[in-house]
């Protein structure tokens, strides 16, 4: 018999007792002698309930004691409602269950729990163009305007095809650097510790008590927050580079462009030193646009009239056309030759152009009756110093001369079209886009030049538009720019023919042949009006995280039916940078849980292998010596197959 007043552990033995044990279980379920000493408790009887009922009762009622450690869990009874007490009890039960698990089992369970959402989230960020159905607009010819319709849907008579010119375009990455760090990255970490050590060296231990208290306050109030801000910003810069690289790499891999361009503001400041300019440029080429190359100087400096054949040189898909922006070389009031020189050294010329001929396609020039090949003319224009006053006259004059030569003197063939890449948007009325027309000037003692501007002046804008459509007002073209981070899509239109009657009338002085600008979505009537000519201007939304990691997709193709170039534009956004951070942190957490669980399980297995046999022998001997129900109880317990027995074991 077991003496009263002793401490006991409750050991649950869930087995199925063989039929010959039934005669030993015919006693009462709670058999206790008159002295108060427990002998044996039979919790459930297989003769009175089914296996399902037995296990359900155990799950709902039985407390699981964890080897006398004082922690226990319980199974919550089934409830019809999700009341607050039941939810709290469920949370408490889950917590107890976690505490009752081995450490390795806990980590592996957490890893398995978070693995499905981690896989789904990772699939999204690496295949987001597929989920958003991002692609270059298809080349649609005029005859594709006819549709076959049935009861359910309409289908184009001529399916679209892949455009021969596909430009992947990004706006304003603005790589930051030391200028965004405290004291431009030169701040001393924990200066209070240095000051404290200096005082100890100077005064020995005489002023240690006073100095220690003062410097401890400065360490807590100034140094630690400053160090946190510094390293937090460094982490943010590192993550931002990887985020932008992810956007470029993913959309480039999925859409397969023929050409790539970045429309200015490659870097975040024009006032940085040459060393910092080189560091940020290195990050641009080796982190953000890793694997890409700048356009060779042999191409940007070429003055040959021979065009490149579209698709003949596969290197173009890995070359990035870079346009200068205000954060790269400055506005007109602070541009100088040195900033332009360092930009051209690390990227490409600020003003250049190239022509692409369409392979295997010829047309007849109506003026000369000679066969010609349709061509696309791509112009990179430095718009930062087209307006004045300017700080440096020579770069300003070079941009003006380049604009006049390419749009008014170097006339292309009638079957050509122009793609103009620049940074500052053209002039348009306030309310058309996010940024309204705005110009600010430097003080006179700093030259009085342009300090900041949102749009080009109206005169410069009209000169650019007039040059693209040509004197006959029939040439095709499109303008892509950046600067306005929110992006905008505008259609500029004007009459194809001058109103001769108005020009010959008495009010001829009041007649204005002006461009009208509307958002592209509201200008569909002007687009379809055959009496109007027009140019589409797309201000590409920034690729920065705050603006969704945007990428622009421009398609250009030659319409054989209408004998003209056509353009279409679409965009694709990944999402804010927090999505990128959250998914990768989740992946690291799941991976960490999994690795920790596997390692801990291996360690636990090594530690328990040798002790398992000895522990089982010891427990068997203690049970055999302590339990005095019948001399055959222990053998039956070891072979039990139908009863759940709770044995009182003496400690």
Automatic annotation (TrEMBL):
Chain segments annotated as transmembrane:
62-78, 84-101, 113-131, 579-600
What UniProt keywords apply to this chain's record, in alphabetical order? Membrane, Transmembrane, Transmembrane helix
| Gene Ontology terms describing biological process | GPI anchor biosynthetic process
Which SUPFAM superfamilies did the record assign?
Metallo-dependent phosphatases
Task: List the record's Gene Ontology CC terms alphabetically.
Answer: endoplasmic reticulum; membrane
Q: Give the domain of life.
A: Eukaryota
Q: Which PANTHER family match?
A: METALLO PHOSPHOESTERASE RELATED, PROTEIN TED1
Name of the protein in its database record: Uncharacterized protein
- Origin organism lineage: Eukaryota, Fungi, Dikarya, Ascomycota, Pezizomycotina
């Amino acid at each position: 018999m077991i003496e009263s007043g002793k401490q006991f552990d409750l050991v649950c033995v869930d087995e199925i007792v063989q039929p010959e044990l039934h005669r030993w279980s015919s006693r009462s379920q709670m058999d206790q002698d008159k002295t108060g000493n427990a002998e044996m408790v039979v919790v459930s009887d297989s003769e009175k309930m089914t296996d399902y009922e037995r296990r359900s009762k155990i799950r709902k009622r039985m407390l699981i004691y964890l080897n006398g450690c004082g922690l226990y869990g319980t199974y919550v009874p089934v409830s019809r409602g999700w009341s607050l007490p039941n939810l709290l009890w469920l949370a408490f039960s889950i917590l107890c269950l976690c505490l009752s698990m081995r450490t390795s089992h806990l980590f592996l369970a957490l890893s398995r729990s978070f693995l499905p959402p981690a896989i789904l989230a990772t699939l999204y960020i690496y295949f987001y163009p597929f989920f958003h159905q991002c692609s270059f607009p298809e080349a649609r010819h005029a005859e594709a305007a006819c549709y076959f319709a049935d009861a359910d849907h309409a289908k184009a008579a001529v399916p679209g095809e892949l455009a021969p010119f596909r430009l992947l375009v990004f706006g304003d990455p603005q790589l930051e650097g030391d200028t965004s760090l405290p004291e431009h990255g030169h701040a001393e970490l924990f200066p209070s510790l240095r000051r404290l050590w200096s005082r100890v060296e100077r005064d020995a231990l005489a002023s240690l008590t006073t100095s220690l208290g003062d410097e401890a306050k400065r360490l807590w109030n100034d140094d630690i927050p400053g160090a946190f801000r510094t390293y937090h910003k460094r982490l943010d810069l590192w993550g931002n580079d990887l985020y932008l690289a992810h956007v470029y790499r993913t959309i480039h891999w999925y859409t397969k462009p023929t050409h790539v361009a970045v429309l200015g503001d490659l870097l975040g400041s024009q006032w940085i030193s040459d060393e910092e300019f080189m560091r940020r440029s290195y990050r641009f080429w080796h982190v953000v646009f890793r694997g890409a190359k700048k356009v060779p100087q042999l191409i940007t400096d070429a003055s040959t009239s021979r065009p490149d054949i579209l698709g003949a040189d596969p290197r173009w898909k890995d070359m990035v056309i870079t346009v200068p922006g205000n954060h790269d070389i400055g506005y007109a009031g602070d541009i100088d030759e040195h900033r332009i020189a360092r930009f051209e050294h690390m990227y490409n010329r600020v003003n250049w152009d190239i022509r692409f001929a369409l392979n295997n396609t010829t047309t007849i020039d109506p003026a000369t009756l000679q066969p010609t090949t349709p061509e696309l003319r791509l112009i990179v224009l430095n718009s930062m110093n087209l307006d004045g006053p300017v700080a440096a006259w020579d770069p300003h004059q070079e941009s003006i001369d380049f604009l006049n030569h390419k749009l008014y003197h170097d006339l292309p063939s009638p079957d050509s079209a122009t793609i103009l890449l620049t940074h500052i948007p053209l002039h348009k009325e306030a309310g058309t886009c996010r940024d309204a027309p705005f110009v600010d000037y430097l003080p006179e003692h700093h030259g009085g030049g342009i300090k900041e501007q949102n749009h080009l002046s109206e005169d410069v804008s009209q000169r650019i538009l007039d040059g693209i459509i040509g004197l006959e007002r029939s040439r095709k073209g499109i303008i892509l720019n950046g600067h306005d981070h929110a992006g905008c899509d505008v259609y500029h239109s004007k009459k194809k023919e001058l109103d001769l009657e108005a020009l010959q009338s008495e009010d001829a002085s009041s007649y204005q042949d002006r461009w009208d600008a509307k958002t592209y979505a509201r200008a569909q009537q002007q687009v379809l009006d055959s009496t109007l000519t027009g140019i589409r201007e797309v201000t590409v939304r920034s690729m920065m995280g705050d603006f969704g990691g945007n990428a622009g997709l421009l398609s250009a193709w030659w319409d054989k039916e209408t004998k003209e170039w056509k353009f279409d534009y679409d965009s694709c956004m990944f999402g804010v940078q927090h999505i990128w951070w959250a998914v990768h942190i989740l992946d690291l957490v799941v991976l960490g849980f999994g690795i920790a669980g596997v390692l801990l399980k291996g360690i636990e297995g090594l530690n328990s292998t040798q002790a398992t046999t000895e522990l089982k022998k010891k427990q068997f001997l203690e049970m055999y010596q302590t339990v005095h129900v019948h001399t055959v109880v222990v053998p039956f317990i070891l072979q039990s197959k139908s009863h759940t027995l709770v044995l009182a074991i003496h400690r």
